[in-house]
DNA sequence: CTATCTTCCTGTGCGC
DNA sequence: TGCGCACAGGAAGATA
């Protein structure tokens, strides 16, 4: 589920309910996810105040009083689920591996926020707030696509000399941070670039177009609350609806909206066979074979 | 250095 | 309605 827009949406939801609050307790229900939870996690969480949030690529960072930040990656199936703290006993949530409880404001009931992740590809770590970007999982990450530092020149330099398909290059978090399978497919469609083309051979004009197209698709999705495929994305249980605006992702066989192939006269070959699917590096790629070159 | 493959997990949807 | 199988939003780590 979670690529940059989904992580941004989740983070904003957490910010709204957690920032400024004091953590009363942490409930750690297994040893870890992808890796063991860090030593002393519960102790650092309990009693700390939540100072704020930041996103880096697909990672979220929750700053705590005391000088630590909690680093979280949602993996493939991670969600954050918020509910009244009183529900904890009578309605256990499946695959809730870690949760924190915060006090309510003005006498309101407290809140429990749980990290739910059936596939357990997510991860949680602690890092000194002053050294967040030095964490081994964040060091070496490419530019944030929504920041000014992500320019055609920067992207061009990252793609130069790379003979890997452009699809795989854009999934590489060292090239640009936060893109995943959905948004790479969508951005390549918008920029008119064939996913199998070698990264270094994408013509300059279209390579430059990638920058605004990546930004546009990410911003549109954030505005829609991200994409909700099989899970709720938002901490408040609300659904993102960007999945309704996919132009190619998961649309194999459907007509490509850029090609008027439905209007082809009878007996003539349609100019576009519609959205195709291919497998690259073990992952589905969706694209229009006529308009992506 | 780069590129490719395997691996970690559970849930879901489909064909039979 | 059950069973087996393919596939799912990620990416680290091993290997060539």
TrEMBL record:
<feature type="binding site">
    <location>
        <position position="95"/>
    </location>
    <ligand>
        <name>DNA</name>
    </ligand>
</feature>
<dbReference type="InterPro" id="IPR020629">
    <property type="entry name" value="FPG_Glyclase"/>
</dbReference>
<keyword id="KW-0227">DNA damage</keyword>
<dbReference type="GO" id="GO:0003684">
    <property type="term" value="F:damaged DNA binding"/>
</dbReference>
<keyword id="KW-0234">DNA repair</keyword>
<feature type="binding site">
    <location>
        <position position="162"/>
    </location>
    <ligand>
        <name>DNA</name>
    </ligand>
</feature>
<keyword id="KW-0479">Metal-binding</keyword>
<comment type="subunit">
    <text>Monomer.</text>
</comment>
<feature type="active site" description="Proton donor; for delta-elimination activity">
    <location>
        <position position="283"/>
    </location>
</feature>
<feature type="active site" description="Proton donor; for beta-elimination activity">
    <location>
        <position position="58"/>
    </location>
</feature>
<keyword id="KW-0238">DNA-binding</keyword>
<keyword id="KW-0456">Lyase</keyword>
<dbReference type="GO" id="GO:0008270">
    <property type="term" value="F:zinc ion binding"/>
</dbReference>
<feature type="active site" description="Proton donor">
    <location>
        <position position="3"/>
    </location>
</feature>
<keyword id="KW-0511">Multifunctional enzyme</keyword>
<dbReference type="InterPro" id="IPR012319">
    <property type="entry name" value="FPG_cat"/>
</dbReference>
<comment type="similarity">
    <text>Belongs to the FPG family.</text>
</comment>
<dbReference type="InterPro" id="IPR035937">
    <property type="entry name" value="FPG_N"/>
</dbReference>
<dbReference type="InterPro" id="IPR000214">
    <property type="entry name" value="Znf_DNA_glyclase/AP_lyase"/>
</dbReference>
<keyword id="KW-0326">Glycosidase</keyword>
<protein>
    <recommendedName>
        <fullName>Formamidopyrimidine-DNA glycosylase</fullName>
        <ecNumber>3.2.2.23</ecNumber>
        <ecNumber>4.2.99.18</ecNumber>
    </recommendedName>
</protein>
<dbReference type="InterPro" id="IPR015886">
    <property type="entry name" value="H2TH_FPG"/>
</dbReference>
<keyword id="KW-0862">Zinc</keyword>
<dbReference type="GO" id="GO:0140078">
    <property type="term" value="F:class I DNA-(apurinic or apyrimidinic site) endonuclease activity"/>
</dbReference>
<dbReference type="GO" id="GO:0006284">
    <property type="term" value="P:base-excision repair"/>
</dbReference>
<keyword id="KW-0863">Zinc-finger</keyword>
<dbReference type="GO" id="GO:0034039">
    <property type="term" value="F:8-oxo-7,8-dihydroguanine DNA N-glycosylase activity"/>
</dbReference>
<comment type="function">
    <text>Involved in base excision repair of DNA damaged by oxidation or by mutagenic agents. Acts as DNA glycosylase that recognizes and removes damaged bases. Has a preference for oxidized purines, such as 7,8-dihydro-8-oxoguanine (8-oxoG). Has AP (apurinic/apyrimidinic) lyase activity and introduces nicks in the DNA strand. Cleaves the DNA backbone by beta-delta elimination to generate a single-strand break at the site of the removed base with both 3'- and 5'-phosphates.</text>
</comment>
<feature type="domain" description="FPG-type">
    <location>
        <begin position="247"/>
        <end position="293"/>
    </location>
</feature>
<dbReference type="Pfam" id="PF01149">
    <property type="entry name" value="Fapy_DNA_glyco"/>
</dbReference>
<feature type="binding site">
    <location>
        <position position="119"/>
    </location>
    <ligand>
        <name>DNA</name>
    </ligand>
</feature>
<keyword id="KW-0378">Hydrolase</keyword>
<dbReference type="Pfam" id="PF06831">
    <property type="entry name" value="H2TH"/>
</dbReference>
<dbReference type="InterPro" id="IPR010979">
    <property type="entry name" value="Ribosomal_uS13-like_H2TH"/>
</dbReference>
<feature type="domain" description="Formamidopyrimidine-DNA glycosylase catalytic">
    <location>
        <begin position="2"/>
        <end position="122"/>
    </location>
</feature>
<feature type="active site" description="Schiff-base intermediate with DNA">
    <location>
        <position position="2"/>
    </location>
</feature>
